[in-house]
Fold these 2 entries.
Entry 1:
Amino acid sequence: MSQSADLVTSSSVLQDRHSILKFTDVIKKYSSERGSIVALNGISLDVKEGEFLTIVGPSGCGKSTLLNILVGLETPSAGAVVLDGANTVDRKAVGYVMQNDNLYPWRTLRENVEFPLELRNIPAAERRRISARYLEKVHLADFADAYPYELSGGMRQRGNIIRALCFSPRILVMDEPFGPLDAQTRLLLQNLLLGLWAEEKKTVLFITHDLHEAIALGDRLVVLTARPGRIKSSHPIDIPRPRNIRHLHENAAYRALLSKVGDELAEEIQVQAGVH
Ligand SMILES: Nc1ncnc2c1ncn2[C@@H]1O[C@H](COP(=O)(O)OP(=O)(O)OP(=O)(O)O)[C@@H](O)[C@H]1O
Ligand SMILES: [Mg+2]
């Protein structure tokens, strides 16, 4: 399949791709002195190689938990996660942009970006070459030697993203990466991410509260229920690429999906409100 075909088509292309990641009946219970909580209750999900999958669901429904299980920070209480046919997920194969910006304050931006490369024993000259290339891509070359406190929120987030990408992970996992940013910076980073994705062809799992963002970026959108999180629905996003995010409201498929999934999400948020 040619690169240009990949860029202009979307979920229909994925039908021919093989599955890279599979969650089967994943359950997660947390226990504490205050009792136990079921965060996830039977998640089964199949992700295709190269797919950009977006996930929405009410706050507290288990989205971060799902990603933490995938990267091995949490273990499932039951069920399995299989990456590339292996029952234990190789964490080295996953780049994780966490919900909170977590650059190390004592390292410069360049040293932060190079951190995963150090962990993989990449020689210094090669690390420098790779970090320079990625810093350039996200227009941060001039800030390579700055410390995180000297950067804006949007700059730190760009650093976070390239740190998760620079070691060529098979899968990029992002947990509300643009949450705290203003609308203009968010749009900039959304476009940047789509550009990087089109270049690198990664499989992406992207969590967001923002339904517009979920539809604008994804090939497929999965909606989770209020806690305990289950899969409520899954929607292919058949909007041609490249997408003009700022003008998506002019696209009928976008508006239809926004309305449909907006209703589904509102239902779940109501359920949740009843619970508390
Ligand atoms: N380490 C933990 N110990 C105990 N309970 C936890 C732990 N981590 C998460 N939980 C609980 O699991 C549930 C799901 O949490 P999670 O962080 O996955 O939600 P979320 O969907 O990511 O929410 P948000 O959209 O607000 O980020 C919550 O009720 C939370 O209190
Ligand atoms: Mg979360």
Entry 2:
Amino acid sequence: MNATGRCLCGNIEYGLSQEPVGLDVCHCKNCQRQAGASFIPFVAVPLSDFSVSGSPKIFMDTDTVSGNGVARHFCGDCGSPIYVVVAGAPNTAYVASGTLDVTEHLHPKCHGWTSTRHAWVSLTDGAPQYEMDPGLQPESV
Ligand SMILES: [Zn+2]
Ligand SMILES: [Zn+2]
């Protein structure tokens, strides 16, 4: 394992067999609602490199602007968002980076859905910004 993380209460733990670096920061309204926050930064990793212990609950988020359904995996005990799987990229886990144990090396790779960015959030990191869908990671199956 090169990276580990967990939910707030610790009932869900996970490991990644590769070290994530770049963040896909999602400013969409649905991520804002799920997190109760202004955005969710995600690290995209192949599902096959992602192992979870515990039993996350899954909310099937079908009311999306993109039309892509999103399976939102979260802790049913403490509510932490853990990861999402998007219908258009079924072999990729987008892991909510706030749940990682080590985060110092992370930096934004892109910002998506900035059309619903909260006005007070200034994006000064130089990463590309997309008003809507930033496009999904190419998958190697
Ligand atoms: Zn929990
Ligand atoms: Zn989102």
